[in-house]
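User: Before I run my own analysis I want an independent prediction to cross-check against. Here's the chain; please return only the structure tokens and, at the end, one sentence I can use as a sanity check.
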Amino acid sequence: MFDVLIDSAHQFPIYEQDLVRIHVIGDSHALVFGKSKLFSVHHIGPATAYNLKNENSSTNSNQKLFGIIEKINEFKDIVILVFGEIDCRIHIYYKYMMSNKTTPISELIDKTVSNYGMVLKQLREININFLVCGIPAAGFEENIYKYPFYASPEIRTKIFYEFNERLKNFCGKNNYKYINIYPIVSDKNGFLLQEYADDNVHLNEKIIPFIEDWLRKEYKGRINSNSVGESSLNEVDGVDTFEIRDKEIDVEEIKRKIRENIKLRKESGAYPDDEIKELNSNMDKVDQGNSGPSALVKEIQHEIEYINSNWDIQNTSYSISSNRPLAGKALVKGRELVHDEVRRYVDPVIWKQREFNRSVVGLLNKLPSEIAENVRINIATIGEDIENKAWLANILENKSHATKTNRTEESGESIDYINYFIFSDEMSKIWTKLSGKSVDTPNIFIDSIELFKDCKNVLDIGCGSGYFLKIMKQNGIGAYGIDLNEDLVAYCQKIGFNATKIDALSHLQSIDNKSLDGIFMNQLAEHLSIDNLFKLLKLSYEKLQYGSYVIITIPNILSMLVSANLFYLDPTHQRQLHPEVIKFLLKSCGFRDIQEKYYQPIPDEIKLEKIEIKDYPQEVTIKKIMEIYNNNIAKLNNILFGFRDCTVLCKK
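Assistant: Structure tokens:
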């Protein structure tokens, strides 16, 4: 990024009659336009079409948009607006769920288009030559950011399609130009075609030729590669112009660039020798893994200080003169004519470079403090979590040692006890090895949050270390937990949750009828006798308010992997429970609207592989089919006809 800073004797450009600049303003989906020299890209952050009209939105998108609009030439410049994908992927469905599904999705789409339209009307009133770029098709991104509500892929495709159609019709009705990219990039099911996908959400550069051709046809010769400004990523009044994605960060490349710049500065005399030694020393510490985030920030700060003093390449002291007494006036006039002619072609390029430099400096000036603050917050959070878990592990270890010592003193025999904290951790690793990693979608905790929305008194029976209590607290749900393990209860209390050590039957008998508005039992029922489970469900029915939910999660013994294998990783399990048994018990207690859902699907790499003949060339088809077939047979044989005995060996 440092190589773009250059010197020049040219000043701010003057717009010429034949110069047309195309500004692309939008969310992260505007960034793909930066792949073409035709466009000047302005990324104003995660802005939504719904809130673009709102002057006080959390993203300040309205202020950023019109801050850019104020600086363009309304007589010659063209503006392309790129908004709406975030609405379709997240916000429309979120508002639908927040309304308890009472506001139809179609109505929310219309409201979003209407809000967007208010901004378009404002732009027309101030004579901005703009056009609207439609949204792409729905991507395949899962709920990786843990949004409380996230539509299924099928629902998202419908939202994307309907939004694009209504926005297109709205623009047509109001005579706004509209680039309809949806049919180009969508498959027959409404998903983003892989050939146009940069990731699971964004488009890649393959869409650019279509947009360029559309513009050239629409503006009939006014646009060509020579008459528009070069592509850049700009910053206008604090508008962030590009985003850094994790996959783009190359730490080794950054360090190499810094070393090169240090060397160049040293050769030019910009850095004294003692500063060079300090910089190289810090870089060596980074290489050895001994330097913390603060040292890296200091190194970057050296570069930023240099850039801050050299980014502005505008030369305001340039003047034309001559020392010749007779021919001087004629020479000056001639040079001025040549200078003005050269400026006609060079100034636009210099202005673009200057704006790019300014945007880079603006972004870099924010980085050190933001990096330091983010690192500080993350380290504090991680440190607190480690401290709390270390505290719990220490309590359990000490208790195990104390119990062993007391039993030895009483009986004269040495008796050891399992540390179930460590045991649980080890068994979870085996569980992952046998059945694959846990998946986030579908998720029982997210689904339960939806059912417990606005509840004030949810009981988590067997709350453990408080995982679900934390999620409920984050979502504004009043909840408390009970557990028989006093150490886990103490841990919950230490991190701020309401938890009590008591058995479920005793607790439910002690509280008022209809005092609870939700009960959650995760992986608990299989630990109880059938009689106690029935009593627990009967009491739950009495203590719940009408219309409240009880949610029970058990190991799914319909899966042979669970019933014949994973179930026995926990020796405290008393019995396997068929889902129909649970449903019968609930019905017997008076519960209604009983349904079953299944979570934690087995990853594909653990399952038997499907044979897709079309994926292979004809000459290797038979061989590949037989390989897959034999691998599947081996997996089945291991499950159905494995060894009859197992011997565990060890030595001291």
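Sanity check: Residues 365 and 488 are 45 Å apart (CA to CA).
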